[in-house]
């Protein structure tokens, strides 16, 4: 499957911004789900955002709506997560993931994704 590598993580103060990137080893397919997940200490991995390259739109967790934006480069081999107005509760390891099929109502379900990156740490201090 597709090999993914995340980058762009770092440490910022609350209210700051970061842009995460997810580079694929090959171009992404025309109908593919690409998602961002995160896992904080003591918590389960949760879906943050997803984009359907087949034209299904974008999806966000309620906790990040209005602050995070998921996008894909026209070349379709890079996915981005623009994170603005960061909060301490956003602190987590962020992972990008890809799947060829995910039911719309399950975009946030981690096991629906077959391809995963190594993760990039995001730390937000107050």
Helix-strand blueprint:
Blueprint: E1 4-7, E2 10-13, E3 18-24, E4 33-39, E5 46-52, E6 57-60, E7 68-72, E8 78-83, E9 92-99, E10 115-116, E11 120-125
Question: What does this entry look like structurally?
Answer:
A hairpin with a 4-residue loop joins strand 5 and strand 6. The termini are far apart. It is built from no helices and 11 strands. The strands form 2 sheets. Strands 2, 4, 5, 6, 9, 10 and 11 form a 7-stranded mixed sheet that branches. 0% of the residues lie in helices and 48% in strands. With 126 residues, the protein is mainly β. The relative contact order is 0.31. The model has no long low-confidence stretch (mean pLDDT 92).
Brief summary:
By secondary structure, this protein is mainly beta. Helices cover 0% and strands 48% of the residues. The strands form 2 sheets. Strands 2, 4, 5, 6, 9, 10 and 11 form a 7-stranded mixed sheet that branches.
Coarse shape = globular
What fraction of the residues are assigned to beta strands by DSSP? over 45%
Structural class of the secondary elements? Answer: mainly beta
Count the beta strands: 11
Name some characteristics of this structure.
126 residues; mainly beta; 7-stranded mixed sheet; 4-stranded antiparallel sheet
